[in-house]
Write a structure and sequence with these properties.
Blueprint (H helix, E strand, L loop, with lengths): L2 E4 L7 H10 L2 E4 L3 E5 L1 H12 L3 E4 L2 H7 L11 E4 L2 H8 L6 E2 L7 H5 L3 H4 L5 E7 L5 H8 L3 E12 L4 H7 L3 E3 L3 H10 L2 H8 L2 E4 L2 H10 L4 E3 L5 H8 L1
Parallel strand pairs: 1-2, 1-9, 4-5, 4-7, 5-6, 7-8, 9-10, 10-11
Antiparallel strand pairs: 3-8
Length: about 240
């Protein structure tokens, strides 16, 4: 049974773990970062959301960390997510419609949503994200005349990896969902295992992450919409 590293932070990998089991792969949790809530930022968040015309959720982690502190009984503001996975996570809290791209899961896809044309210039947009997140969406919305506030509600902390487990299990593949994970993964790798890490088959959902993997020395990369049973079964065949 081939082994695959699941590098998503704890609590975000359940679907991938199930897909691996269904496809006959052995999934190994192997995240080089952990998500830590910012209590002070969460305390300020309800007031920030109340003042916004639209709220953008940058990831499922943002939803996991922050949605529980909010009251979604009001009809406003609009809620927008980076992709369908985040939309599904937010739907567990929010009964009103959640807007997300049908295809794509990045800021570029979000900017193509028609709803931006229906919001008045000068509308207040709140972006909920982790510390040090990508600034592309905020900059683009400001250029369109929107007022943008940012709520950074969690930290990404480096987390030591068990490289003895890596050497013992001899994984054949890895699933990676952010460029930051790529950086931490390859930074932590001991010299004697660095080439083994580069030789893995990598699955990722975005070309930006694939570029980070290539820059780190990986060559065998598959772009996939998601890591599901069918994707893994095709690789097995």
């Amino acid at each position: 049974m081939p082994a695959i590293l699941i590098t998503r932070p704890a609590g975000r990998a359940a679907a991938e773990m199930q897909a691996c089991a269904a496809a006959g792969w052995r999934a190994l949790p192997f995240s080089p970062i952990r998500i830590e809530a910012d209590a002070a930022a969460l305390a300020r968040l309800p007031e920030q959301v109340a003042a916004a015309d639209a709220v953008f959720w940058v990831s499922p982690s943002a939803v996991d960390i922050a949605a529980g502190v909010l009251d979604f009984s009001s009809c406003t503001p609009l809620h927008i997510t980076v992709g369908q996975a985040s939309a599904q996570a937010l739907a567990a809290f929010c009964r009103q419609p959640v807007y997300a791209p049908q295809e794509g899961n990045d800021s570029e896809a979000v900017l193509q949503l028609p709803l931006w044309q229906s919001l008045p210039r000068g509308a207040e947009i709140l972006i909920i994200r982790g510390r040090g997140g990508r600034g592309f969406l905020a900059q683009s919305l400001r250029q369109q005349g929107f007022k943008v506030q940012i709520a950074e509600v969690y930290f990404r902390r480096p987390q030591p990896l068990d490289w003895a487990l890596f050497a013992q299990e001899k994984p054949e593949a890895a699933y990676v969902t952010s460029s930051e994970i790529v950086h931490e993964l390859f930074t932590q790798a001991p010299p004697e295992l660095a080439q083994n890490l580069k030789n893995l088959l990598y699955f990722t959902h975005h070309e930006r992450i694939a570029a980070a993997l290539r820059a780190a020395g990986a060559e065998n990369i598959r772009l996939v919409a998601r890591l599901d049973m069918h994707t893994l079964q095709r690789e097995t065949e």
